[in-house]
Amino acid sequence: MKKLLPLLILVPMFASDPPGVVVWKASDLKAKEKELIGKMSDKKMASATLETFGNHSTMLAHREGDGEVEVHEKMADVFFIESGEATLILGGTVVGGHTSAPGEIRGASITGGEKKTIGAGDAVHIPAKVPHQMLVANGKKVTYFVVKVEEKQ
Asked: How far apart are CA 137 and CA 5, in angstroms?
């Protein structure tokens, strides 16, 4: 048994990742960014869900144009800016708001919101029910990793 003990200790080191563990390597995200650039909509935006877990999901998004105003009734957004730069408008009042899906409101613009410049390396947490809009200046672009988390009500 003493000879087997070192082998038993080594076995866990060679096992696969625990369930739910995902590592997105920088090279994988860059490859996904290139894919997104090739699939941009007429609104100069593309996104892809990477994984979905229980109460949260992950996405990668790329923008080369302004986004709509978004308000999520139950979901918080966490953005990690991978590359580029944008202006994020937070709070205020949604102009032209309409329900786009259950618990989701979209609109044309925000009045009275606060503007923040965000760029590579920045992280942002936006609680549920907070209007937000990402603006991308002409000739600029931004790619960001998104975690959408269902907030407890």
From this structure: 62
